[in-house]
Amino acid sequence: MLNSLFRKKPLESTIEDARHGGDGHGSELRKVLGVRDLTSMGIAAVIGAGIFSTIGQAAYNGGPGVIFLFIITAITCGFTALCYAEFASRIPVAGSAYTYSYVTFGEVTAWIIGWALILEYGIGNVVVSISWSSYFVNLLEGLGLHLPPWLATDPETAHQAFLRAQEAGETTIGMAWTTAPTIIGFKFIANLPAALIILIITILAYIGIKESKKSANFMVALKLVVLAIIVIIGLFYIDTDNWTPFLPNGFSGVLKGVSAVFFAYIGFDAISTTAEECANPQRDMPKGMIYSLIICTLIYVVVTLVITGMVHYGEFNNVSDPLAYVFEKINLSKVGFFISVSAVVAATSVLLVFQIGQPRIWMSMSRDGLLPGRFASIHPKHHTPAFSTIITGIIVGIPSLFVESALMTDLTSIGTLFAFVLVCGGVLVLPKESNPGVKRFRLPYINGQFIIPVLLIIFLYSFQDRISDAALNLSHDSRQELLFLIFIGIAIAIAVVTFIKKFSLIPVLGMLCCLYLMIEIPARSWVVFFGWMAFGLVIYFSYGYWKSRLAVRRI
């Protein structure tokens, strides 16, 4: 049974299945994406709600020095992007990390990572749709239109606002709860705008990749222009005294924003899910990933420096719309409406890219027999994974009506980082090319035999106090410190194996960076993550293990 769990899908078979739609009917996706489109999709996914909302709290915790977190995250994603690029050029197939893991680590690992990606894309879009709803309601207010408060929030948030209003003696804060209609004894409260935007985006993703591409390109161009205008205006109001101290809470304060910042960066992963719709994936996908990552990092760093220069970092606590807030502080409140429009556009572009990505994960898993065959069906007219797109719309749209976004960002980040670790590790065991003469992207080999152990020794020396405190007070420390000690153990093991096998430096650094960012995510989110993984394994052993196409082939 152990051999069956880790049965690997041959590389040639993976490419052949994609060419024939996995079912021999020759249903292919439409190949219309080029470098500009892929870069645009990456920017569309990365420059989204994060730059209009979570960047404020990250700046409050880390001060102006939070730009180092953006740079660290970009470097981490850069290592991973190079590994993705190697895979994308060798295996130009939809499915992203799921497909790559199937070829390198085997079936059960592929299922686990596919299930994690479903969590990443699904919950990620729920969070973004809630953020979109908030900005959209503000936009309506600016136009003099008023949506009933019980149709623009979730029940838990409304109830908590009502309780706080009671304690404070307020009469308006808890209006969503007090004005909501009661149906069979329950308050009917739902975030209608969040669900409606998911519906609209799902229809667009269903109609076709060509239409989605045009929409994404337009939205990216618009929000880049808006951000450029914001930066240009903001430059005239920068007070350099606001940048002192640059790291008010030290590096630990910077790292408090890991989940929020990394959540903003995960979009470039979605580019790899469109490999089969790329005209020349071996050439264009690596460029699209790397270009989008560089552009997005520059944008985040510049915008962060501008807003922390305009307003002292200490004022960003619990500010959900930092870009609008800084212009209100300098009496340019009319700019806030302009920013709300761009925030709605930015969040819409993120939703579109993610809503394109998830159905292609379902499709790839279905081709391999791990999910029912219906998920792999391609619409004969629109050339999109139609059924998977509809299911994605349902599983994202319904929760967006009723759930709050607490913990969701952390869960998405864990799933993404987990995928990144396996992609980086997978490059190290990727089968050798059968035709090495073909021109394609190749990850440069740098011997990590000595570099990785030296870097680990420097890391251990720098964190010696934390290591000793965690080890001596293990029974009293939080689970967060236990995660840190587990990371130390894994890092030492990776360094030893790298020394023995002379592994390439870039993939190993990618694994270590992603693992470290994972243990900085609150431990409570790990409990939910492992619960999701356990649920996924139940489905795999109930269906996928027995229906796998590899199992059928062996029979």
TrEMBL record:
<dbReference type="Pfam" id="PF13906">
    <property type="entry name" value="AA_permease_C"/>
</dbReference>
<feature type="transmembrane region" description="Helical">
    <location>
        <begin position="38"/>
        <end position="60"/>
    </location>
</feature>
<feature type="transmembrane region" description="Helical">
    <location>
        <begin position="414"/>
        <end position="431"/>
    </location>
</feature>
<feature type="transmembrane region" description="Helical">
    <location>
        <begin position="482"/>
        <end position="500"/>
    </location>
</feature>
<feature type="domain" description="Cationic amino acid transporter C-terminal">
    <location>
        <begin position="505"/>
        <end position="548"/>
    </location>
</feature>
<keyword id="KW-0813">Transport</keyword>
<dbReference type="Pfam" id="PF13520">
    <property type="entry name" value="AA_permease_2"/>
</dbReference>
<dbReference type="InterPro" id="IPR002293">
    <property type="entry name" value="AA/rel_permease1"/>
</dbReference>
<feature type="transmembrane region" description="Helical">
    <location>
        <begin position="289"/>
        <end position="313"/>
    </location>
</feature>
<protein>
    <submittedName>
        <fullName>Amino acid permease</fullName>
    </submittedName>
</protein>
<keyword id="KW-0812">Transmembrane</keyword>
<feature type="transmembrane region" description="Helical">
    <location>
        <begin position="188"/>
        <end position="208"/>
    </location>
</feature>
<feature type="transmembrane region" description="Helical">
    <location>
        <begin position="384"/>
        <end position="402"/>
    </location>
</feature>
<feature type="transmembrane region" description="Helical">
    <location>
        <begin position="66"/>
        <end position="85"/>
    </location>
</feature>
<feature type="transmembrane region" description="Helical">
    <location>
        <begin position="335"/>
        <end position="357"/>
    </location>
</feature>
<feature type="transmembrane region" description="Helical">
    <location>
        <begin position="505"/>
        <end position="523"/>
    </location>
</feature>
<feature type="transmembrane region" description="Helical">
    <location>
        <begin position="529"/>
        <end position="546"/>
    </location>
</feature>
<keyword id="KW-0472">Membrane</keyword>
<feature type="transmembrane region" description="Helical">
    <location>
        <begin position="250"/>
        <end position="268"/>
    </location>
</feature>
<dbReference type="InterPro" id="IPR029485">
    <property type="entry name" value="CAT_C"/>
</dbReference>
<feature type="transmembrane region" description="Helical">
    <location>
        <begin position="443"/>
        <end position="462"/>
    </location>
</feature>
<feature type="transmembrane region" description="Helical">
    <location>
        <begin position="220"/>
        <end position="238"/>
    </location>
</feature>
<keyword id="KW-1133">Transmembrane helix</keyword>
